[in-house]
Design brief:
This protein is an alpha/beta fold. It contains nine helices and ten strands. Strand 7, helix 7 and strand 8 form a beta-alpha-beta unit.
Length: about 230
Amino acid sequence: MAVSLLEINDVRAGYDRTTVLHGVTVAVPKDGVAAVLGHNGAGKSTLLRAAMGLLKPTAGRVLLNGEDITRLSPHQRVARGMAYVPQGQQSFPHLTTAENLQLVADGRADGKEAVAEALDLFPALRELSGRRAGLLSGGQRQQLALARALVTRPSLLLLDEPTEGIQPSVVAEIEETILTLAARGGLSVLLVEQHVGFAMRAAQHYYVLEAGRVTSSGEGGAGAEQTVRAALSV
């Protein structure tokens, strides 16, 4: 595998006394995409939360650019170039689209330029700049959530089911944007995704989780789609 930007090594994590991840190891290539797939309850979201520092592992390590960040706070990880887009098209519903983006840009010397670049990726948001986020469709809120993350100009983007529950036309736009970002370079992506075809088009490497364990992994690409589908059907 190519040089890794993020390494999740033998991580165990869970909630209270329930262990969800049982020694999971995942690597995200530098300037590339790693996809994590699995059924509901497999531990995919827990893995992203552990990577982002929202959940402290009980064992194992998380490395970013070779630095052990296992005990760093989410804020410290953001400062090192990580961004996280959880499930649910999260935004500040009472703020407008423009205000949601500006909130992230404030305090950044390149904030205005970063917002403009994010809007170039999601041009539909320009027309919605004055609309409250709570009045946007699910697909529009997801585009806004992605744009907000990109305003921070991350080197690593953690995406949790970015196409879940979104109308097909917007799914295609989001998929195209993620593929464009991955191809552009300068950004690594850890992608949790249910759409196997999209995940394999985007990813250089994939991991299948089942009951908190990696049960299958390999090189991504369209040729891996059948293998992944078979692994998920077991």
